[in-house]
Write a structure and sequence with these properties.
This protein is an all-alpha fold and about 425 residues long. About 70% of the residues lie in helices and about 0% in strands. The protein has 19 helices and 2 strands. Helix 1 crosses helix 4 and helix 7 runs antiparallel to helix 8. The protein is globular, with a radius of gyration of 24 Å. The chain binds iron/sulfur cluster (SF4) (3 copies). One iron/sulfur cluster binds next to helix 12 and helix 16.
C-alpha cells in the first residue's frame, strides 16, 4: 500500500510536467503508468521501478537546467531547487520501493514480463526521440500521441512475454505474434497504397520483398535503414529475424504449418540457396550500374517476389517446410551466416538418444539425422524454439554463454518480444 501511495503522486507530478511541456500524450503515458500501479498486474513493480527511476532522473535534469537558468539571471533558486529536488527524491523513493517489492515477489515470469515492458518502452522512446520523422504512427495524427503508443506497446510486450513463457504454448504464440506483425505491416502498406501516405515510412512506396533489404542498397547505393535494422537484430538475437520478425516469413510459416508436421528439404536446396543469393546480389549491382531503366529493376524484383509467393503456396504447403525461407530468400541465408556472430544457440544435450522426434517439428530443416548425430542444430536454425518443447526427454534448450538453460530462454524471450513490440510500433515501408 505504501508503495502505491508514493507511486501515484510521483506519476501525477510527471504527468503534470508533461502537460507543462505541451505534451498531452506524455501526460497520458504517465497516467497509464499510474493505472498500472493500482491494476492487478503481477509485473507492475518491475515496470514502475524502471519508469520512476527514469522519472527521478528527469526531475534531476529539469532541476539542474532551471537552477542554472536562474543563477545566470541572478534570480533566487534555492526554493525551486528544494521543491524540485524533493519531487525527484519522491520519484526515486517510489522507484526503489517498487524495485524492492519486485525483488521480494520474484513470482515466476514477472521479471521477464517487466523487463520486456521496460526494454520495449526504452527502445520505442529512443526511436521516437532520435528520428527526425514521426516514426510512431499516432504522432502523425495527434502530436505527442506516440507516447501513448509507447506505453501501450510496452504493456503488450509484457503480456506477450507471459504467453511465450508457457513452454507448451510458445510455438503457438510465436506464430500468432508473428502473424499479427505481418498483418499490421501489410495493413499499413495497403493504406499507404490507397493514398494515405502517412501510413508509409517516408511517403514513398517500396516493394515489400525481403531480398531488397540487401539488394536495394546495392542497387541504389543508399537507403541503408532496413539493412541496419536487420544487422542490429542479428547482433541482438542472431537469425531469429527469420522466425519472429520478418513480415514475409510469417506467410511462409502459415503456408508450412498447413501440414501438421515438418517434412524434409531436398538436398539440392543447400546449393540452390547460395546460388540464388549470389545471383540476386550480383543482379542488383549490375542493374544499378548498367543505366537500364528503373522500371526494369522494379519488374525483376516484383517477379522475384511473386515467384517467392508461388514457392510458399505450392511447395511450403506441400512439404510443411519453410521452403521459401530456407531455399529461396537470400536474406535467410545471410541471417543464418551472419547470425552466428550472436552467441545464442540451440543446445542439444549429449544424453540425446537420437530418436529424431524433434526433426518433425523443425520446419527449417536444421535437425537432419546428420545434425542430430553431431548434437547441434544445423546452419538453417533460426532459434524459433519449436523443437525445444518437442523433445520428449527435455534434451533441447536455448544456450547463452554464462547463463543457465532457463535464464537463457527467459533472456531470449525478453529480447525477442521487446523487438517484436518495437517493430510493431515503427516498422513500415
Ligand atoms: S528468409 Fe527471407 S522471407 Fe524468410 S523470414 Fe528470413 S528474411 Fe523473411
Ligand atoms: S527429440 Fe530429443 S532425444 Fe530425440 S533426437 Fe531430438 S533432442 Fe534427441
Ligand atoms: S533447430 Fe529448433 S530452434 Fe532451430 S530452427 Fe529448428 S526447430 Fe527452430
Amino acid at each position: 500500500m505504501s508503495t502505491t501511495i508514493l507511486t501515484l503522486p510521483s506519476v501525477l507530478f510527471l504527468a503534470a510536467h508533461a502537460c507543462r511541456l505541451g505534451s498531452p500524450g506524455g501526460a497520458v503515458f504517465w497516467l497509464i503508468a499510474g493505472f498500472l500501479a493500482v491494476a492487478p498486474v503481477p509485473w507492475k513493480n518491475w515496470a514502475l521501478a524502471g519508469l520512476l527511476a527514469f522519472g527521478a532522473w528527469l526531475w534531476g535534469d529539469v532541476t539542474l537546467a532551471l537552477v542554472q537558468q536562474r543563477m545566470a539571471l541572478g534570480l533566487p533558486w534555492m526554493r525551486l531547487a528544494a521543491i524540485l529536488g524533493a519531487i525527484s527524491l519522491l520519484s526515486l523513493t517510489a522507484s526503489l520501493m517498487n524495485g524492492h517489492r519486485a525483488y521480494a515477489n520474484k513470482k515466476s515470469g514477472c521479471p521477464v514480463q517487466g523487463l520486456a515492458f521496460l526494454l520495449s518502452v526504452a527502445g520505442l522512446a529512443i526511436a521516437r526521440q532520435k528520428t527526425s520523422l514521426d516514426i510512431i504512427l499516432l504522432d502523425r495524427f495527434y502530436p505527442s500521441g506516440g507516447w501513448i503508443v509507447v506505453i501501450l506497446l510496452g504493456c503488450y510486450a509484457a503480456w506477450t512475454a507471459g504467453k511465450m513463457l508457457q513452454p507448451g504454448n510458445s510455438a503457438r504464440w510465436r506464430r500468432i505474434i508473428w502473424t499479427i506483425f505481418s498483418v499490421v505491416f501489410f495493413l499499413q502498406l495497403l493504406l499507404g497504397q490507397l493514398g494515405f501516405e502517412r501510413f508509409l515510412m517516408t511517403g514513398s512506396l517500396h516493394l515489400p520483398i525481403p531480398a531488397l533489404i540487401a539488394a536495394g542498397p546495392l542497387y541504389r547505393g543508399d537507403g541503408f535503414f532496413m539493412l541496419i535494422l536487420f544487422a542490429v537484430t542479428l547482433v541482438l538475437v542472431g537469425p531469429a529475424w527469420c522466425s519472429h520478425l520478418c513480415y514475409i516469413g510469417a506467410w511462409d510459416n502459415l503456408a508450412a504449418t498447413c501440414k501438421p508436421r515438418a517434412g524434409t528439404l531436398p538436398g539440392w536446396t543447400k546449393t540452390s540457396r547460395w546460388l540464388i543469393c549470389l545471383a540476386v546480389l550480383a543482379a542488383a549491382l549490375l542493374l544499378g550500374r548498367s543505366g537500364l531503366p528503373v522500371s526494369l529493376a522494379i519488374t525483376v524484383a516484383a517477379v522475384f517476389g511473386l515467384a517467392g509467393v508461388g514457392i510458399m503456396l505450392f511447395w511450403s504447403r506441400r512439404t510443411g517446410m519453410m521452403t521459401h525461407c530456407t531455399s529461396y530468400c537470400p536474406m535467410g541465408l545471410l541471417a543464418n551466416i551472419f547470425g552466428t556472430i550472436n552467441p545464442w544457440r540451440i543446445r542439444m544435450q549429449s544424453e540425446c538418444c537420437a530418436c529424431g522426434i524433434c526433426s518433425r517439428y523443425c520446419r527449417y530443416g536444421a535437425l537432419s539425422a546428420r545434425d542430430i548425430e553431431g548434437r547441434h542444430a544445423g546452419l538453417n536454425c533460426t532459434l524459433c524454439g519449436d523443437c525445444i518443447i518437442a523433445c520428449p526427454h527435455g534434451h533441447l534448450h536455448y544456450r547463452f554463454p554464462g547463463l543457465s538453460d532457463n535464464t537463457a530462454r527467459s533472456a531470449f524471450i525478453v529480447v525477442i518480444v521487446a523487438l517484436h513490440a518495437i517493430f510493431l510500433g515503427v516498422a513500415r515501408l
